[in-house]
Amino acid sequence: MQFSRSASRAFMPYPKAPVPHAPGGPLSGLTFAVKDLYDVAGYPTSAGNPLFLAASGVKDRHAAVVEQLLAAGAEFVGKTVTDEFAYSMAGENVHFGAPVNGGAPLRATGGSSSGSASAVSCGLAEFAIGTDTGGSVRCPASQCGLFGLRPTHGRISLEGCHPLAPSFDTVGWFARDIRTFARVADVLLGPEPPLPAEIRILRADDVFERFGAQVSQCLAPAVRRIEEVFGPAVSAELAPHGMEADAEAFRLLQAQEAWQSDGEFIETNQPPLGPGVRERFAFARKIALKDLSSEIRQQRLATAALEKTLGTDGVMVLPTLPGPAVPRGAPESEVNDFRTLSLLSLCHGGLTGLPWLSLPLGRLEGAPVGLSLIGPRGWDRRLIAVAERILG
Questions:
Q1: What's this model's pTM, rounded to 2 decimal places?
Q2: Which pLDDT tens digits describe the chain residue by residue (392 residues)?
Q3: Helix boundaries (H) for the chain
Q4: With contact defined as beta carbons under 8 Å apart, do 206 and 238 qualify?
Q5: Reduced DSSP (H G I as helix, E B as strand, rest coil) percent helix, strand, coil of the chain, to 5
Q6: Are the C-beta atoms of 142 and 195 separated by less than 8 Å?
Q7: Which distant-in-sequence residues (6+ apart) come within 8 Å of 258 by Cβ?
Q8: Which residues neighbour 200 within 8 Å (Cβ) at sequence distance 6 or greater?
Q9: Catalytic (active-site) positions
Q10: Do strands 75-80 and 234-236 pair parallel, antiparallel, or not at all (unpaired)?
């Protein structure tokens, strides 16, 4: 669906500054937008907060990933709204607004890479850069009907990007079609070995069961298509040591790092914080010095279990989210309930650091629902190759 730039509410209202790009290259002819956590020379960086914006100043150099994309010939078209300090999945910023979901305009975009997903789903950029810590690319990709990747942790440089929780933060991006998505991947990821001759498809039964029959039914045709290409799926579990225990470990570990990233600024400046974000930082402050050794052990259990399940040739299939996006203006309690349920699955991206690709292959209640693929460490481009084969 095509929206005007102003109607999409995807972009930060910055005065336009020149951002030169290479006249040719593998991404020549493509436009891209950038989440306002990344530095772009000639622009400030807000991290979704007006006091942080006021202290930012205009940057004189690009974030590493922005520089890489410009050098490949892509054209920068603007910085996009982010949920505040990237510490939310709601897709709404109390200071800068709620970007429009081009895939389901009456529903939330999802966050925290809300503006980036909006810009792409509204047809205002061919692709856009976001970040994913606990689901901030995978969530809006699913809700807006886009392709979105959380790469292997550390695969792409985050230099010049404001952190939330560095142990979990990753670069990620969105596109409407797999061909464009793969072009960006070839630039950002570089070469990988080819897919093995045979791949084991693993169906995350614990996630399908937890997210309910409606989601399973709407994604069933996509799962059948995967089985047609790669053979029957084998029953498996994403979280054999317990979804709730894994999610709680992630919540505490993320919160402690979030306070390390932003606590000093918040304590010094007392910025106004929006609902949800305010409560999460208050919680983070309380556990800033807490011993989280038991949570680290839980993280190691979760990682070892998933790596053992995947082996060197397994691809896990699971719903990205428990359903379509909540309606715009939904009560905060409904938004939080959806977030809590979503994180039972999504948290494993951060905990394990494994690559996780969301594909726009389902619809429920007239809105997009994503199907995800998780692969072994370093399988970022290979997961996209799996998607290319599924889509023909």
A1: 0.97
A2: 678 999 999 999 999 999 999 999 999 999 999 999 999 999 999 999 999 999 999 999 999 999 999 999 999 999 999 999 999 999 999 999 999 999 999 999 999 999 999 999 999 999 999 999 999 999 999 999 999 999 999 999 999 999 999 999 999 999 999 999 999 999 999 999 999 999 999 999 999 999 999 999 999 999 999 999 999 999 999 999 999 999 999 999 999 999 999 999 999 999 999 999 999 999 999 999 999 999 999 999 999 999 999 999 999 999 999 999 999 989 989 999 999 999 999 999 999 999 999 999 999 999 999 999 999 999 999 999 999 999 99
A3: 5-8, 50-56, 64-71, 114-121, 138-144, 178-189, 205-211, 213-230, 243-269, 277-286, 293-310, 332-352, 380-391
A4: yes
A5: 40, 15, 40
A6: no
A7: 85, 87, 164, 165, 280, 281, 284
A8: 234, 311, 313, 314, 315
A9: 35, 112, 136
A10: unpaired
Chain-centre distance of CA 204, in angstroms? 20
Between β-strands 75-80 and 31-35, what pairing exists: parallel, antiparallel or unpaired? parallel
Residues 183, 27: contact at Cβ < 8 Å?
yes
Distances in Å between the Cα of 77 and the Cα atoms of 20, 65, 193, 208, 293 are 11, 15, 33, 38, 44
Within 153-242, residue ranges assigned H as helices are 178-189, 205-211, 213-230
Structure tokens at 157: 């440089």
Cα 294 to chain centroid distance, Å, stands at: 27
Q: Which residues of 66-98 are buried (b: 16+ CB within 10 A; e: fewer)?
A: bbbbbebbbbbbbbbbbbbbbbbbbbbbbbbeb
Question: Which are the contacts of 110, defined by CB distance < 8 A and separation ≥ 6?
Answer: 89, 90, 91, 101, 117, 139, 140, 142, 143, 144, 325
Return the closest-CA partner of residue 249 out of 306, 287, 201.
287
Here the contacts of 238-242 (C-beta below 8 Å, separation 24 or greater) are 238/204, 238/206, 238/207, 238/306, 238/316, 238/318, 238/345, 238/348, 238/374, 239/206, 239/207, 239/302, 239/305, 239/344, 239/345, 239/348, 240/206, 240/305, 241/298, 241/301, 241/302, 241/305
